[in-house]
Amino acid sequence: MATSLAPDRSPVPGPSTWLPGGAYWAFRDDPLAFFTDTARTYGDIAGFKFGPQKVYLISRPEWIEDVLVKSAGKFGKGIALERAKALLGEGLLTASGQHHLKQRRTIQPLFHRQHVQGFAEAMVHHAARWRDSVTPGAPLDLTREMSRLTLGIVGETLFSSDVQGDADEVQEALTDAVSNFAYAFIPGLNYLSKLPLPMFARMRTARDRLDRVIHRVIAERRTGTPSTSAKATVAREGLPAPRPDLIAMLLAARDPENPNEGGMSDTQIRDEAMTIFLAGHETTANAMAWTWHLLGSAPDVEARLHQELTAVVDGRIPTMDDVPKLEWTRAVVSESMRLFPPAWTMGRRVLQDHAIGDHILEKGALVILSQWVVHRDPRWWPEPESFQPERWTRAAGDRPKYAYFPFGGGSRVCIGEAFAWTEAILLVATIAQRWRFVRGSEPPPTPEPRITLRPKGLRMTALAR
Ligand code: HEM
C-alpha cells in the first residue's frame, strides 16, 4: 500500500555488508577512504550497516542543508556524540531538545562579536609569546605546539586562568579520551564499557584528569582568585588583566526567556566549561597545524601572505581591526579548512521517518555528513586535492552553500565560529610575520581522523623570514 511519505523503501545501495560488521571494519581501517570511496561509488546517498545499525552517508549539499537546517527537528545528535556524554555530560555539544535550546540562548551572548573583540588581545599575546619562544632551525612538532598555544588561549580568554601549566596533562588526557573514537560505533559499547578493560579504564582516568583541571578553574572563579601561577604569569608576561570570563558569565547567566529562574547548577557549569574547553582548542589547533603544513608546500601562496602582512600589519602586533583587511590570510585559512576540515564528519540520528530524494530514512537510522568527502567533491571544487586559496577571492558562482560547512549549520552551528575565525587569522598574522616553517626531508603528515582531524607526524623547522 502506498504511504504519503514514500518514494522508496527498498535498500539504498552501498558497500557490501555480507560479513557481520563488514562495513564497520572497513571504516575502522581507514575512515576517510571508506567514506570517500562509498560516496564516489554509490552517490549522494549510500546505505550500509555498522553491525545491526543502519547508516546513511549523505553527500549532496542541498540534502545536507535539509538535515542540518530545514528538517533539523527530525534529527538528533549521532551516536559518537551521544557517547561523548561520558566525557562532556549535558554540555551544548551533546545536549538535545529544549535543554539545548535553553543553554544555547543563555550562552550565546558570550560569543557575540564584542566579546570576541575583547578576547583578540589575549589571542595575539599568546601568539606573540609562542613566536618569541621558537628556536630557529630546531625541529618542531607543530600539532603539539599549536595545541598548547590554543589551549592557553581558550584557557585565558574563557577562564581568565593560565592553564598552560596543565597543557601536557590535558594533551595526554585528551589523546587518551579521543583515541578510541572509532569504537564509538561498536554495537553494545554501553555494556562493554562497564567491563574492566584497559581501554575503558584509560578513558575514565582521562576524564577524571580533565575534570580536575576544570574544577580547579571553577573553584578559582567562585572565590574570585585566579591561581598564584596564573597571577604570576599575567605579571611576568605582561598579559592583559583578567576580564569577565566564561565561568563568571556562566555563574551569572540566566535564560533570557525566563530571567527570574535560577542559574545553572555546578554540574551544568562543569559540563559547559568542559565542552567549550575541549571544542574550543583542538579544532583550531588542527586548523593552524594544517595551515603551516600547506603554506610550507606552497611558496607562491606564502609569498602573497607575507606581502599582505607587510601591507596591512607592517611588523606590529595585529589587532581585531586588521582582521577584515587580511583577505588573503582568511582565504588561506578557508582553503586549509576545506582540504583538512578539523570537524571531518558529523552524525545525526533519524528521529522520525524522513524522505530524502527518492528514499526514506527510517527512524533510528544514523546519518553521516562528511566535510572531508564534500569539501573534496570535484563537482564543486575543480582540482579538489590542490591547495588554491584564490578560490576564496572569486565569487562562489553556483557552488551550493553546503558544499563547505566546516562549522556545521542550522541551530547547532558552531557557537565558537566567530571566535575561531578571529583566532586563526590573528595567529597566522602574528606568527607568519616572524617565521616560515619548512619540512625539509621529513615525510608529509598523514591525516588522523579521530574526533577531529589531526595531522600526524607534522615535524617542521622554523626559519626566520
Ligand atoms: C576551526 C575551529 C572550529 C571548528 C572547525 C568547529 C566545528 C564545529 C562543528 C562542525 C560543530 C557542529 C557539530 C554538530 O552539529 O554535530 C561545532 C559545534 C560547537 N563548537 Fe565548534 N568548531 C571550532 C571552534 C570552536 C571554538 C573556538 C569553540 C569555543 C570557544 C567551539 C565551541 C563549539 C560548541 C560549544 C559547539 C556546540 C554548539 C551547539 O550544539 O549548540 N568551537 N563546532
Quick overview:
It is built from 19 helices and twelve strands.
Architecture overview:
By secondary structure, the protein is an alpha+beta fold. Helices cover 48% and strands 11% of the residues. It has 19 helices and twelve strands. It has helices at 22-29, 31-42, 61-70, 79-83, 85-88, 97-107, 113-133, 142-159, 167-178, 189-192, 198-223, 228-237, 246-252, 266-279, 282-296, 299-312, 327-339, 371-374, 417-432, and strands at 45-50, 53-58, 75-77, 139-141, 346-350, 354-356, 359-361, 366-369, 435-438, 446-449, 453-456, 459-464. The strands form four sheets. Strands 1-2-8-5-3 form a five-stranded mixed beta sheet, sandwiched between helices. A three-stranded antiparallel beta sheet has the order 4-12-9. A two-stranded antiparallel ribbon has the order 6-7. The N and C termini lie far apart (72 Å). Bound molecules: protoporphyrin IX containing FE. Residues 92-93, 104, 154, 275-276, 279-280, 283-284, 287, 342-343, 346, 406-408, 412, 414-416, 419-420 line the site of protoporphyrin IX containing FE (HEM).
